[in-house]
Write a sequence for this structure.
């Protein structure tokens, strides 16, 4: 682990700390036993006074974080539905030839977002560093290169396959330790007439809706449009359009190419909005930190009252985000007895730091809980619908975010 001295986007050294979430384990380092030894690392945010990027102060070795990974994109209904739309939207902005060109996804996970391109007859290639996930993608029929993305890796790929007319990198740039080398690689691999799409959890939404649970060691950067454009511009990439994405509870997708243009009306609107709402100012992020501590107190009060009333509480969704929430708030197996998760790679393991057993949804719901604490709150509607339909659940739901924690009764 190393502490940064320079900004991950602009490389300046004017960093100002503003939010310390304490020492926490790596969010996806699930345990085989609650007695297993685990490492804890500092988790704190700084703000760059030059480009205004919010970022983690410490960097964990990417090989520790990503070589063996437990998040599988295809387990999310929202992701599967969005993959089809994303494919159509990207194709509409490109001039890709099915015979000559190929679609490249960097950090392709299990290939869920490349499958729609394959269905439409496009040649594809995924690149992902997680050996176990790349193997899943290959078995699904998605050609996948198991490697960490870098400028050197990009140049090797271009020598072998030529440049790509269409590249996308979803929900990965915020995870990257060397953002400048990563973007340099995207620029190297992109054809001179190509289009690049980058998706990132939007810092404005994190700020507005108090998504402090999205802060964990994998998420090194929290991008606004301003600092994302700054980074891309440094490597000759220029944003020409932007749109919303449902991923992570609220993300943006920017479309860029190697030629400058005025940009779409939507892009101009986003730029003006960030400026008028002062999204990039430190004072707003300092308020964010205060609100996170107040949220913790409110959430613990709700849980304490439920326990006092003798209610059985179980969790749903052992996501990386839930790890930050559980550890920051000090919620352990005494408060939540068990967590349901439909990802087979997580079942039978224990949450990092808080040591709560993760099991199949069927096992968890057989315990007849009174309250389901929806840790994967950004999929709350999907989860509640499944609980109603598959398990005939009629108890309460505790939804921690966005903004205020709240308890709602079954419909």
């Amino acid at each position: 682990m190393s502490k940064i001295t320079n900004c991950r986007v602009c490389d300046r050294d004017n960093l100002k700390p503003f939010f310390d979430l304490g020492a926490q384990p790596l969010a996806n380092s699930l345990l085989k036993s609650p007695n297993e030894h685990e490492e804890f690392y500092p988790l704190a945010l700084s703000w760059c006074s030059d480009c205004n990027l919010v970022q983690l102060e410490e960097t964990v070795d990417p090989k520790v974080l990503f070589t063996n990974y437990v998040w599988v994109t295809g387990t999310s209904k929202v992701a599967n539905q969005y993959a089809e739309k994303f494919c159509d939207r990207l194709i509409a902005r490109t001039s890709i030839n099915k015979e000559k060109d190929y679609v490249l996804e960097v950090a392709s996970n299990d290939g869920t977002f490349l499958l729609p391109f394959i269905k439409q007859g496009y040649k594809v290639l995924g690149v992902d560093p997680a050996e176990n996930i790349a193997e899943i993608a290959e078995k699904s029929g998605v050609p996948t290169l198991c490697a960490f993305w870098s400028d050197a890796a990009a140049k090797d790929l271009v020598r072998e396959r030529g440049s790509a007319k269409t590249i996308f990198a979803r929900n990965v740039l915020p995870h990257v330790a060397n953002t400048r080398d990563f973007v340099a690689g995207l620029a190297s691999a992109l054809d001179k007439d190509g289009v690049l799409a980058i998706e990132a959890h939007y810092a404005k939404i994190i700020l507005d809706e108090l998504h402090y649970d999205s802060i964990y060691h994998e998420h090194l950067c929290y991008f606004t449009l301003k600092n994302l454009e700054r980074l891309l511009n440094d490597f000759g990439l220029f944003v020409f359009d932007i749109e919303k994405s449902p991923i992570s509870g609220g993300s943006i997708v920017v479309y860029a190419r190697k030629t400058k243009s005025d940009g779409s009306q939507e892009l101009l609107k986003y730029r003006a909005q960030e400026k008028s709402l002062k999204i990039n100012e430190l004072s707003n992020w300092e308020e964010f930190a205060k609100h996170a501590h107040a949220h913790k107190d409110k959430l613990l009060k709700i849980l304490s009252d439920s326990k006092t009333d003798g209610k059985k509480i179980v969790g749903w969704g052992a996501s990386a985000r839930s790890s930050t929430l559980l550890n920051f708030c000090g919620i352990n197996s005494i408060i939540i007895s068990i967590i349901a998760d439909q990802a087979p790679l997580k079942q039978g393991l224990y949450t990092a730091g808080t040591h709560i057993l993760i099991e199949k949804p069927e096992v968890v719901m057989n315990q007849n809980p009174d309250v389901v604490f929806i840790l994967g709150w950004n999929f709350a509607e999907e989860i509640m619908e499944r609980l109603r339909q598959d398990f005939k659940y009629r108890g309460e739901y505790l939804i921690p975010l966005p903004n205020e924690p709240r308890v709602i009764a079954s419909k």
